[in-house]
Design a protein that fits this description.
Keywords: Membrane, Transmembrane, Transmembrane helix. This is Band 7 domain-containing protein. Helices cover about 45% and strands about 25% of the residues. It is α+β, with helices and mostly antiparallel strands. It has three domains: about 35 residues; about 55 residues, no CATH class; about 110 residues, Tetrahydropterin Synthase, Chain A, CATH 3.30.479.30. The strands form four sheets. Strands 2, 3, 6 and 8 form a four-stranded antiparallel beta sheet that branches. Strands 9, 10, 11 and 12 form a four-stranded antiparallel beta sheet that branches. A two-stranded antiparallel sheet has the order 1-7. α3 crosses α5, α4 crosses α5 and α6 crosses α7. The longest helix has 28 residues. It is elongated, with a radius of gyration of 33 Å.
């Protein structure tokens, strides 16, 4: 047994063992490390922008009106990467939701609505839109929120009555009114606008409570709801 073991570590046998171990180590460690270093895998729900020296690579588009060009986009899959010259930056392109601040909006009939709303959006996977999203806009959520909020305000100003339409009617109108501007300025796709809360403001309710009613048999009756509301607001 000792002779067999000593024979393995003598002369040519030791050289064969070293070569075999080196080959196995290369296949198990070195080759996967190189593949991981020179291959980029982009998962579903993400995309990547190719960069050089930390800056996105911009290609000039022929015939583009603004002349701003596009970034190089890597879609989901496996791509070759050269760390010396090119690298990449992952961008999450899944849909997400952003809340709008509560706002008091006045309808055409004078009704005031305290509106809580949110909008769903996602980045558009194209070279021009991702460049706008990543480079040209400082705060995409704030800019898109201002655009959507302005469109919602303008639509509410045109509505009559004390109740806003349901979301399945109101949302498409808001999206149609500002989706193009949101894409141009922010590089994102506006999916829907959802009104999560709609309440008449206390100012409107108080004005209705203290407004004199026309003379009729029922006007002399005591309005309990108006009295309670006026008492609550005056105590505040």
């Amino acid at each position: 047994m000792l002779d067999v073991i000593s024979g393995m570590f003598s002369g040519s046998a030791l050289g064969v063992l070293v070569k075999t171990s080196g080959a196995a180590l290369t296949l198990l460690v070195v080759v996967p490390a190189l593949m991981k270093l020179f291959l980029v895998t982009v998962d579903e729900g993400s995309t990547a922008i190719r960069t050089r020296n930390g800056k996105p690579i911009i290609r000039r588009s022929r015939g583009a009106d603004d002349g701003r060009g596009e970034v190089v986009v890597l879609r989901p899959g496996t791509h070759g990467a050269f760390p010396i010259f090119y690298w990449y930056r992952l961008v999450d392109v899944r849909a997400r939701s952003t809340d709008l601040p509560a706002r008091s909006l006045t309808a055409a009939s004078g009704h005031q609505h305290l509106v809580h709303a949110s909008f769903d959006w996602r980045p558009i996977v194209s070279g021009h839109d991702l460049r706008v999203l990543e480079l040209d806009v400082v705060n995409v959520r704030e800019r898109a929120g201002n655009i959507v909020g302005a469109a919602l305000r303008d639509l509410v100003h045109q509505l009559d009555g004390a109740v806003l339409p349901p979301n399945d009617l109101l949302s498409p109108r808001v999206v149609d009114a500002c989706s193009d501007l949101v894409r141009t300025d922010c590089g994102i796709e506006l999916l829907r606008v959802i009104v999560t809360g709609d309440a008449l403001t206390d100012g409107y309710l108080l004005s209705q409570a203290i407004t004199p009613r026309p003379a009729d048999p029922q006007s002399a009756e005591w309005d309990a709801a108006a009295s309670v509301l006026a008492t609550r607001l005056s105590s505040v």
